[in-house]
């Protein structure tokens, strides 16, 4: 079975120390209910504008390509990230990866088993369906190809036809840079194996779209749009202060959670940036080809690998093993009060983070509306 997966790698910023705004003794709670609906509306309006502008760009580019006879497209180039509507403005919390509810833990553990062969079929596919739903809700990138997967039409074209599409899409130079292997071009790489030289600017249909829709920002941006950074950047708040605020609010509850887990399960846990590295423990015990969640810079600690584990190819056995540990985490999260503390902490720091940028986001939305109008004018013309 041919299988390709992308593991999520987190590069979390180091929390800034000594930020007075988030010092615990000076911080007063905000009323979550007072602001939640307002901030969710702001978040969803940003997502709507992003999705509509993405869709307009795609129509412009594809109409250009189809006018040249290219009717089969590489659909991955037209995915609209960050355009889904949500029922809360809250981002995924630091505890979400290691602290499922008891009900969730009993069904799906902490998703480490999804790395294993046969994961799609165990228990009639019910756990896998839950995994796919979670991935869709959280916009994680999941790619899974096996012998039973139908190959997309674009990849059934011969390599020269695919390359010709890329040339029409982004121009000869960028096509050779990004997809030269289709026609036997080996990229020049440095001693670390990284491709040398910067990506050439987009020409072709994408370049024409950029010139038409984003002409008014050309003077303020790199005129050849080499980095494709032609949209105004969405404003962001102080992430380091947010991380520090969360750490301050949960610090006292961490020890009780670890004590509870170690009374019922393996010993040797230590928090790292609000996270218990359960996926590293499962991986080192033999589950999967990589940790489901990993970090660019190490920290924290987890127990030595378990000895009494299923056989390497026993996917059902590993799911059961993982579930047992996840249930311990979930029950301890409830019984020690850690879950309640962490949920409240996350609500409070997220409120401050998004309220801090609310005015700037409104201004950004106006810029996006202007660009959407420009794209619609191109389509109308």
Q: What's the topology here?
A:
Elements: E1 8-10, H1 32-67, H2 102-108, H3 126-138, H4 159-170, H5 172-179, H6 204-213, H7 239-264, H8 278-284, E2 293-295, H9 315-335, H10 338-380
Parallel strand pairs: 1-2
What does this structure look like?
This protein is mainly α and 381 residues long. It has one domain. It is 48% helix and 2% strand. It contains ten helices and two strands. It has helices at residues 32-67, 102-108, 126-138, 159-170, 172-179, 204-213, 239-264, 278-284, 315-335, 338-380, and strands at residues 8-10, 293-295. A two-stranded parallel sheet has the order 1-2. Helix 1 packs parallel to helix 10, helix 2 (102-108) runs antiparallel to helix 9 and helix 7 crosses helix 9 (315-335). The chain is globular and about 65 Å long. The N and C termini lie far apart (49 Å). Residues 1-24 and 140-147 have low confidence and may be disordered.
């Amino acid at each position: 079975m041919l299988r390709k997966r992308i593991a999520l790698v987190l590069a979390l910023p180091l929390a800034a120390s000594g930020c007075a705004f988030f010092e615990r003794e000076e911080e007063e709670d905000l009323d979550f209910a007072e602001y939640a609906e307002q901030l969710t509306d702001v978040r969803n309006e940003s997502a709507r504008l992003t999705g509509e502008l993405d869709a307009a760009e795609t129509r412009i580019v594809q109409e250009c390509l189809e006018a040249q006879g290219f009717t089969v497209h590489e659909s991955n180039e037209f995915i609209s990230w960050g355009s889904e509507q949500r029922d809360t403005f809250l981002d995924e919390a630091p505890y979400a990866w290691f602290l499922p509810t008891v009900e969730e833990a009993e069904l799906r553990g902490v998703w480490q088993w999804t790395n294993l062969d046969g994961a799609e079929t165990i228990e009639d596919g019910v756990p896998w369906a839950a995994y796919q739903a979670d991935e869709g809700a959280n916009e994680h990138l999941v790619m899974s190809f096996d012998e039973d997967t139908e190959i997309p039409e674009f990849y059934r074209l011969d390599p020269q036809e695919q390359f010709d599409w890329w040339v029409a899409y982004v121009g000869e130079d960028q096509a050779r840079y990004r997809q030269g292997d289709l026609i036997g071009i080996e990229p020049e790489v440095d001693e670390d194996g990284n491709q040398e030289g910067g990506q050439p600017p987009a020409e072709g249909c994408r370049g024409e779209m950029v010139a038409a829709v984003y002409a008014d920002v050309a003077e303020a941006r790199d005129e050849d749009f080499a980095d494709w950074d032609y949209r105004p950047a969405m404003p962001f708040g102080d992430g380091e202060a947010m991380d520090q605020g969360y750490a301050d609010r949960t610090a006292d509850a961490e020890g009780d959670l670890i004590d509870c887990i170690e009374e019922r399960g393996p010993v040797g846990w230590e928090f790292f940036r609000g996270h218990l590295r359960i996926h590293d423990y499962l991986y080192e015990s033999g589950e999967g080809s990589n940790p489901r969640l990993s970090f660019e810079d190490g920290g924290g600690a987890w127990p030595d690998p378990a000895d009494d584990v299923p056989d390497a190819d026993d996917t059902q056995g590993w799911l059961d093993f993982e579930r047992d540990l996840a249930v311990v985490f979930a029950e301890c999260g409830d019984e020690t009060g850690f879950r309640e503390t962490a949920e409240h902490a996350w609500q409070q720091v997220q409120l401050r983070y998004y309220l801090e940028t609310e005015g700037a986001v409104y201004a950004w939305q106006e810029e996006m509306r202007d660009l959407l109008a420009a794209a619609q004018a191109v389509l109308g013309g």
